[in-house]
Amino acid sequence: MLLMTLVTNAAEYRLQQTDVIRMTIYQEDDMTTEALIGKSGSVSFPLIGPVEVKGLTVDEVAKTVKDLYEKDYFVDPMVSVVVVTYAKKWVSISGAVENPGNVAYPEEGALNLASAVAMAGGIAADGNSRSITVARKKGGVARYSLSESGKITLLPGDTVIVPRLPLPQAVVEKTATISGEVRNPGNIKLPKSGKVDILTAIAQAGGFSKIANQKECIVQRKTTSGHRAMTVNLKDVRNGRSTMVFVYEGDIVIIKESRF
């Protein structure tokens, strides 16, 4: 229900990266600006240049822009700011589904686990419908059966993994899951050694998306006492300032959006 509140109450909605906004000034048509909010969180307006808008309401942006124009360019300008397109939000579905990848989170209302699986084409013939893993973007891992999935509400950025039913040992493939802001989220195959370095793992998923946080990621790993979340400093790994981190069978690597 949170998304419905944000979108319906536009005056209270706080702007996010990839939102598209439009600024207009009454009787000043040539000043109209429509722009996407990028990693910097700023939008460049005519005459006054970049203005930080991420995290502000449209009314707060309008007041800021009005004050800047009024200071040097216009007398009491009537500034209006609206959201043209809200930022897209996703849930990543991987494993034994017919169409693994990202499914769009609705702009209004919520998305439950059953609907997300259905949007990914449903569980494949070799999928295990009794042990569906949900890894939360903000941490935490849980398992659910398909029969109870209609009661499980997902949040934007969550990762859903549908495991495959056991196969003869000779044909079992070792896999890990790369989710979030990569070009091809889903499972990647691991070599016979059962591990791959984290940079290669991200490359196998198509590399970072345009809005990915390339400095760090989260690795969710199953242990004898449950799942353990690790934050990996990718920048230090790339520069050799930190030892290489390896991805193992069953790991879930979560690449988040950049905050800048």
Give a verbal description of the structure:
- It comes from Oceaniferula spumae.
- The chain contains five helices and 19 strands.
- The longest helix has 15 residues, at 58-72.
- The chain has helices at residues 2-8, 58-72, 113-119, 198-204, 234-239, and strands at 20-25, 33-36, 42-45, 49-52, 79-85, 90-95, 101-104, 111-112, 132-135, 141-144, 153-154, 159-162, 175-180, 186-189, 195-197, 216-223, 226-233, 246-248, 252-255.
- The protein has three domains: 2-85, wza like domain (wza like fold, 2-Layer Sandwich); 88-171, Outer membrane lipoprotein wza fold like; 173-260, Outer membrane lipoprotein wza fold like (Roll), CATH 3.10.560.
- By secondary structure, the protein is an alpha+beta fold.
- The radius of gyration is 22 Å and the shape is elongated.
Strand content: 25-35%
Supply the helix-strand structural class. alpha+beta
Biggest sheet record: 5 strands, mixed
* SSE pattern: HEEEEHEEEEHEEEEEEEHEEHEE
Give the strand order, joined by hyphens, for the main sheet. 7-6-12-9-10
Instruction: State the share of residues found in helices, binned by percent.
Output: 10-25%
Average pLDDT, all residues: 86
Descriptive key words:
single chain, 260 residues, alpha+beta, wza like fold, Outer membrane lipoprotein wza fold like, 3 domains, five-stranded mixed beta sheet, 5 helices, 19 strands, 16% helix, disordered N terminus, Soluble ligand binding domain-containing protein, Soluble_ligand-bd, signal, Poly_export_N, Poly_export
